[in-house]
Write a structure and sequence with these properties.
This protein is an all-alpha fold and 202 residues long. It contains 8 helices and no strands. The chain is globular and about 50 Å long. Helix 3 runs antiparallel to helix 4 and helix 3 runs parallel beside helix 8.
Length: 202
């Protein structure tokens, strides 16, 4: 989701920093290396957060196995997504040239953030809404799921954007995208936990 969001950002008029956000190179070897960074970082976050959830209902061995497979699945998905996205864009890695990058401008763009939030919320909630419409989910359960999704999307967007800025400050380009993707999964987890505890009192 994060990489598709960045493709929308590309349409912004400040195109000098586009390649900075992607952090990719014309070299296939570098593209695959960067893809592995993105996939591994996302996979580790998912594996850890899933393990923390799973160990509450399963023993440690089962939790470790399930969380490891979940992490591997996400790692592969994000790596492939990065490679496919990179192959569609003829980008090169550059350093900062302007005080305000396209990423910083996009964060200040409230309209863009609102559209992104709405799209991600609908995408995340589609399955729950379908189940509710078919009568497979009660009204209260569906409402709780939607509330959780709001918290998850908000947390994902906030932490991923912060991580992107931090990553770009450390390693311009690939640092931003790597920490941004990992941050989106971490933010999803934290957002759900906060929503469950404060709003739903679970």
């Amino acid at each position: 989701m994060l990489i598709q969001d960045m493709r929308k950002i590309m349409k912004h008029k400040n195109t000098s920093s586009i390649s900075l956000i992607y952090g990719v190179s014309n070299s296939p070897q570098k593209t695959y290396t960067h893809a592995s960074f993105v996939g591994i970082s996302a996979g580790i976050i998912v594996a850890i957060t899933n393990f923390l959830d799973e160990k509450q209902t399963h023993n440690k061995t089962q939790s470790l196995i399930k969380s490891t497979f979940s992490g591997l699945r996400v790692a592969i998905k994000e790596s492939v997504k990065f490679i496919l996205t990179s192959s569609m864009q003829n980008m090169t890695l550059h350093t900062f040239r302007h005080k305000h990058t396209i990423l910083q401008n996009s964060i200040k763009n409230n309209h863009h953030n609102l559209m992104t939030f709405g799209f991600q919320f609908l995408f995340t909630s589609a399955n729950d809404i379908i189940k509710w419409s078919k009568g497979d989910m009660e009204n209260r359960e569906c409402l709780n799921k939607l509330t959780q999704n709001i918290g998850a999307v908000a947390g994902s967007m906030a932490i991923s954007r912060g991580c992107m800025l931090l990553g770009n400050a450390i390693i311009p380009g690939i640092g931003g995208i790597t920490l941004g993707v990992a941050g989106s999964y971490l933010g999803d987890y934290i957002g759900r936990k906060i929503t469950n505890k404060i709003v739903l009192h679970k």
